[in-house]
From TrEMBL:
This is 5'-nucleotidase. It catalyses: a ribonucleoside 5'-phosphate + H2O = a ribonucleoside + phosphate. SUPFAM superfamilies: SurE-like. Pfam families: SurE. Keywords: Hydrolase, Metal-binding. It is an enzyme of class 3 (hydrolase). Residues 10-193 form the Survival protein SurE-like phosphatase/nucleotidase domain. Belongs to the SurE nucleotidase family. Its EC number is 3.1.3.5. GO terms for molecular function: 5'-nucleotidase activity; metal ion binding.
Length: 271
């Protein structure tokens, strides 16, 4: 990555262009020395994972120039599409030059456990990896009801350190940073974390009768099982910001060999 030019960062999120967490993250990445461009969904797009859905008409997907508060000199756009679509478009001719790193967040709410699969914040970072870029997802553990004044600084204080860790790795590396919603001075040490088995809550869906087809009603239930001590959920609860490396979708070779071996063992047991 040695070059006379500054690395370029695309800042996006799934909470939408009007999220103060996005603005705080863009400022932190710029202050860390990277060239910054902001492009985020025009409306909240939480929970869309790596969807590349966009709002299309005869003229394509609309892009609206915006000004990020406090960053008047930073190019910014509200895009009528999901965060992964924005990242995908950036690598297919929209942004020139294309970014070197995608930084996604700061998400209102932690992205923890294997349920990060469903996160639009994480989906954007993983899509960056598919383009051969670095990806960083940043989330603040605000709970299910966000506070009036989230501690964005708890996350932005760690951005320079985590960017250094990320950029020391190979391009395509994706990291997920979660921080407690506390004063930056109250943070405990940054810890590497395993993904919990699922997440910090379980979604339960009930089918209720009503109209001709009924209605699906979702609700949240706390997990009853204690998370492992080295999991992201447990470490966050103990006051630690957590860092986890994520892998994008990849194939696992040898499936036919495993099937043959399994059939052989089954035949031996029945003989």
């Amino acid at each position: 990555m040695a070059s006379s030019r500054r690395l370029r960062a695309l800042i996006t999120n799934d909470d939408g262009i009007d999220s103060p967490g996005l603005w705080a993250l863009a400022a932190a990445v710029r202050d860390a020395g990277l060239e910054v461009v902001v492009a985020a969904p025009h409306v909240d797009s939480s929970g869309v994972a790596a969807s590349v859905l966009s709002v299309r008409d005869d003229d394509g997907v609309r892009v609206h120039p915006r000004t990020v508060p406090g960053l008047d000199d930073v190019p910014a756009f509200a895009v009528e599409g999901h965060p992964a679509y924005i990242v995908y478009a950036a690598g297919r001719g929209w942004l020139d030059p294309a970014p070197d790193v995608v930084v996604s967040g700061i998400n209102l709410g932690a992205n923890v456990g294997r349920s990060v699969l469903h996160s639009g914040t994480v989906g954007a970072a993983l899509t960056a990896s598919l383009q051969g870029w670095y990806g960083l997802a940043v989330s603040l553990d605000t709970g299910w009801v966000p506070p009036e004044a989230p501690h964005w600084e708890a996350a932005t204080a760690l951005v320079p350190q985590v960017l250094d860790l990320l950029l020391a790795r190979d391009p395509g590396t994706v990291l997920s940073l979660n921080t407690p919603d506390v004063d930056a001075g109250a943070l405990r040490e940054l810890r590497e974390a395993e993904l919990a088995e699922f997440g910090n809550a379980q979604v339960v869906v009930e089918h209720r009768e009503g109209d001709a087809h009924g209605t699906l009603v979702s609700s949240l239930r706390d997990m009853t099982e204690e998370p492992a001590a080295d999991s992201d959920i447990a470490l966050l609860a103990a006051g630690h910001p957590t860092l986890t490396e994520l892998r994008p979708v990849t194939g696992v070779p040898g499936v036919l060999g495993r099937v043959a071996a399994s059939n052989g063992r089954g035949a031996a047991r029945s003989a």
